[in-house]
Amino acid sequence: MSSTQAFAIEVLGRSAGIVVAEPGGFMFFAADGAFRALDRRVFKHVGQAEQAAVLLANDHGKRSVR
Description:
alpha+beta
């Protein structure tokens, strides 16, 4: 049995997606349509994926206010 590293990313109480370890980084799999732009992107670190999700959520929030 192989051991896979996977981490859930939550932003503003929403499930943004999960990141799964792969050679060279962590691949993001979106769990919510608002984070689709990050789907299948590879990040060097889990923190980078989380930061990208937060920035995307903040950007969407600004657009919905306009």
